[in-house]
Amino acid sequence: MDPFVFFGGKGGVGKTTVSCAYALRCARDGQRTLVVSTDPAHSVTDVFDQPFDDSPRSVDGIGGLDAVEIDPEDEVTRHLDEIRQDLSEQVSASMVNEINRQLEMAHGTPGAYESALFDRFIDVMRNADSYDRVVFDTSPTGSTLRLLGLPDLLEGWIDRLIHKRRTSIDLFEKAAVGNAEPRRVMEGDPVLARLQDRKEFFEFAGSALHDDAAFFLVLTPDELSVNETERAIVALREENLAVRGLVANKLTPSPDPDETGRGGRYLRERVETEAARLETIRSEFDPPLVAEIGWRSAEITGDLLADVADELDIETAAEQPTHV
Ligand SMILES: Nc1ncnc2c1ncn2[C@@H]1O[C@H](COP(=O)(O)OP(=O)(O)OP(=O)(O)O)[C@@H](O)[C@H]1O
Ligand SMILES: [Mg+2]
Q: Which Pfam family, giving just one, matches this sequence (predicted)?
């Protein structure tokens, strides 16, 4: 299995539960594992009944497992602050107010959230040397993946910006001929350094996600979730990312044969409908069903998490990363 594993899916289907269960299983199999959550509802904290924050902390009682909880709202603020910082060093004081105004507006724009999270995911991947496996609770959405679909375009765009910046610095340096000391500013130019940095960032993101990441989708056996899963498989495929497997969660338990009352009939009907949906998935969807997890009567924490971990037919042995 690739070093980076993502679990995506619709709201509430069990992404956090399955990510934590898989991470637990990897850690049990001797992989140094980090589980990364971006859930504003702090679910990793709930699952392990222990507070987590922005920096990795070890999960009590489970050797080799760390967890980190990234707050998307903080991430957007940090991301925009970095841009603000970067820009204010480059421009005249009179521009700074205008930049601040633009950035305030950017805070609420669609995509700011996802783009900040995408950056943070990639950042975690770049700094994951001390782990064999990093499990992400939530795969990048269609719109963040589109960033990946544009590597050539982005690279071409950044290359052109780099070229422009070089040309203008070159002119600036030449304009100084005649002075005693020629101006040398190409080296150490902060704008060039920043552009170069972004270029490398996207190159890394592309190769890490294509060569070293596996994507799984979690679904519940209802029509909305199944349709959404189908769309997600297509969206990922469009970015040349194959979904490795599907995890069906919250399956209705079968009643005992002697339960012939209303409750029994209700469960039996549901079980049948769900079985038909799962059959459709098996026969029509490319990625295999790698787990069928029953609906428990309680929240999945503690021992229940270990049970769910046993039900995942997803291998844990870590492959060497190729992106390094
Ligand atoms: N198989 C299951 N049986 C019973 N409860 C479950 C099962 N799987 C998940 N749950 C419960 O359902 C709720 C939602 O699960 P979870 O938080 O894992 O979903 P999610 O996809 O991460 O949700 P969100 O989109 O809000 O982040 C939780 O309370 C969890 O304990
Ligand atoms: Mg969640």
A: ArsA_ATPase
CB 314 within 8 A of CB 22: yes
pLDDT single digits (tens) 144-167: 666 665 556 666 777 787 788 888
The alpha-carbon radius of gyration of the chain (Å, integer) is 24
Rounded Cα distance between 191 and 209, Å, is 27
Query: What's the 121 CA to ligand 1 centre distance in angstroms?
Result: 22
Pocket of ligand 1 (CB under 6 A): 9, 11-17, 39, 41, 43, 249-250, 293, 295-296, 299-300
Beta partners for residue 219, in sequence order: 248
φ and ψ at residue 296, rounded to 5 degrees: -85, 160
Domain ranges of the chain: 4-311
Ligand of minimum distance to the alpha carbon of 247: 1
* Closest listed ligand to the CA of 217: 1
Tokens of 180: 């005693």
Place domain 4-311 in its CATH homologous superfamily: P-loop containing nucleotide triphosphate hydrolases (3.40.50.300)
Atom number in ligand 1 closest to CA 11: 25
Kindly report, residue by residue over 109-139, the tens digit of the pLDDT. Answer: 767 777 788 888 889 999 999 999 999 998 7
279-312 as b/e: b if 16+ CB within 10 A: eebeeebebeebbebeeeeeebeeebbeebbebb
Pairing type for strands 57-58 and 65-69 reads antiparallel
Q: How many residues does the chain have?
A: 324
